[in-house]
């Protein structure tokens, strides 16, 4: 009967009284210890194929996604910042500056950059328009609303909403300025995924 570690992790080790079988002793040790390590997989699909039934506390690094995750008993949770992923804009809109993108940091999404209409034309005041859509991994569980900067000589601010379906909606309020805004900034927008 093998012994187990002193930290209650159920990692077995052979005792002198065990029947001699080095293959079995080392195999048992490896099979218990490896799931407790920081595992590395090519991507989430490779992980799912290798670990169909994860256990709470398992950790892994996903190479393609550039992130570390931990299994919390029901889902894999991102615990390190992902790389910045470019935002895919709706038809008629494009990046203006700051490399518009999102990343996930400790179950929160951060946005950056600014966007405009293709060609730089002014936004229509007082109406909502979908400027981009985020993938399911970056969608909030409820509506999130923010005040966002626009150009100084025009409207100064806009309302940005991130919907549970992933749409990034911009609304430039009707104002008395003569020049309507032609860009909106996403810097500073951050929301929880839980």
Describe the structure.
There is one protein chain. The protein is mostly beta strands and 194 residues long. The chain has 2 domains: 3-78, no CATH class; 85-192, Immunoglobulin-like, CATH 2.60.40.2460. It contains 2 helices and 15 strands. The strands form 4 sheets. Strands 7, 8, 9, 14 and 15 form a 5-stranded antiparallel sheet that branches. A 4-stranded mixed sheet has the order 3-4-5-6. It has a 4-stranded antiparallel sheet with strand order 10-13-12-11, with no helix packed on it. The longest helix has 12 residues, at 22-33.
| Class of secondary structure makeup | mainly beta
- Coarse morphology: rod-shaped
Report the average pLDDT across residues: 87
Helices and strands, in order, run as EEHEHEEEEEEEEEEEE
SS field, number of helical segments: 2
Task: Give a concise summary.
This protein has 194 residues and is mostly beta strands.
What labels describe this entry?
single chain; 194 residues; mainly beta; five-stranded antiparallel sheet
């Amino acid at each position: 009967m093998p012994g187990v570690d002193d930290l209650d992790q159920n990692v077995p080790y052979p005792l002198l009284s065990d029947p001699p079988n080095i293959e079995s002793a080392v195999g048992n040790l490896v099979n218990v210890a490896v799931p407790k390590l920081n595992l590395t997989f090519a991507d989430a699909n490779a992980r799912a194929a290798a670990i169909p039934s994860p256990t709470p506390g398992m950790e892994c690094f996903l190479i393609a996604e550039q992130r570390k995750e931990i299994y919390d008993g029901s889902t894999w949770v991102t615990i390190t910042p992902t790389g910045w992923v470019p935002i895919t804009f709706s038809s008629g809109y494009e990046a203006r500056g700051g490399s518009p993108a999102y990343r996930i940091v400790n179950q929160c999404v951060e946005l950056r950059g600014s966007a405009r209409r293709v060609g730089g034309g002014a936004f229509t005041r007082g109406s909502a328009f979908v400027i981009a859509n985020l993938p399911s991994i970056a969608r909030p569980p409820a509506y999130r609303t923010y005040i966002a900067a626009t150009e100084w000589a025009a409207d100064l601010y806009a309302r940005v909403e991130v919907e549970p379906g992933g749409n990034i909606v911009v609304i430039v309020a009707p104002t008395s300025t003569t020049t309507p805004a032609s860009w909106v900034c996403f810097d500073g927008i951050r929301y929880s995924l839980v």
